[in-house]
């Protein structure tokens, strides 16, 4: 009785796991990163690394000797070809299958850098000093905009006479004399508005 139930549960878990992996793979493939085509590892990279004998076998033997590139790998990584990078990755991958106590400090540092270092998808979006350059550029643009604004205002024609306070006060008095809008407007009882007064452009 329990055997069919276990089989059914196993199949359900397997289907859900495979679908989850498929969605995860699709998400990773669709995710936008800063990795350029020249930096990305693909099947062609693996093929060329195999042809150049850069990949060790499962025992960790074989492949070209890339151990000289492991010390200070962080500084050398960008200068290595994609095939050499992949070869070092596979070399360190095989080393990590053994007892970690046997790994040297340089090998541990190199393994950490390949897994978590600022390269590939983890490469910084901005370069050092970018914040200061952005601030200086924005400040320069804002300063130029302010200078152009006040320059135009300085050389522009003077505001029309209808925008002077004296002219607007005279319009308000004339409206009261002619009793314009006596119910709720400027000539109404208890009117406390500004009448025709507007902000002067002068």
UniProtKB/TrEMBL annotation:
Q: Which InterPro entries match?
A: Cyt_c_oxidase_su4_fam, Cyt_c_oxidase_su4_sf
Pfam families linked to this entry:
COX4
Where are the residues of the annotated region Disordered? 170-202
Biased composition annotated in UniProt, kind: Basic and acidic residues: 170-180, 191-202
Which family is it part of?
Belongs to the cytochrome c oxidase IV family.
Q: Name one GO cellular component term.
A: respiratory chain complex IV
Keyword annotations for this protein? Membrane, Mitochondrion, Mitochondrion inner membrane, Oxidoreductase, Transit peptide, Transmembrane, Transmembrane helix
Q: Where is this protein chiefly located?
A: mitochondrion
Name of the protein this chain belongs to: Cytochrome c oxidase subunit IV
Q: Which residues cross the membrane?
A: 135-156
């Amino acid at each position: 009785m329990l055997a069919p139930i276990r089989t059914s549960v196993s199949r359900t878990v397997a289907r859900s796991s495979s679908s989850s992996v498929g969605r995860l793979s699709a998400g990773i493939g669709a995710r936008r990163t800063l990795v350029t085509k020249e930096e990305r590892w693909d099947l062609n990279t693996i093929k060329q690394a195999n042809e150049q004998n850069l990949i060790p076998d499962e025992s960790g033997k074989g492949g070209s000797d890339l151990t000289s590139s492991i010390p200070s790998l962080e500084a050398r990584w960008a200068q290595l070809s994609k095939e050499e990078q992949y070869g070092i990755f596979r070399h360190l991958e095989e080393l990590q299958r053994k007892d970690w106590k046997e790994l040297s400090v340089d090998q541990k540092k190199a393994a950490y850098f390949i897994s978590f270092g600022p390269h590939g998808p983890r490469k910084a979006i901005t370069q050092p000093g970018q914040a200061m350059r952005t601030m200086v550029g924005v400040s320069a643009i804002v300063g130029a905009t302010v200078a152009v604004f006040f320059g135009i205002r300085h050389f522009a024609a003077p505001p029309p006479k209808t925008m002077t306070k004296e002219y607007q006060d005279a319009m308000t008095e004339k409206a009261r004399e002619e009793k314009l809008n006596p119910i709720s407007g400027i000539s109404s009882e208890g009117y406390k508005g500004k009448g025709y007064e507007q902000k002067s452009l002068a």
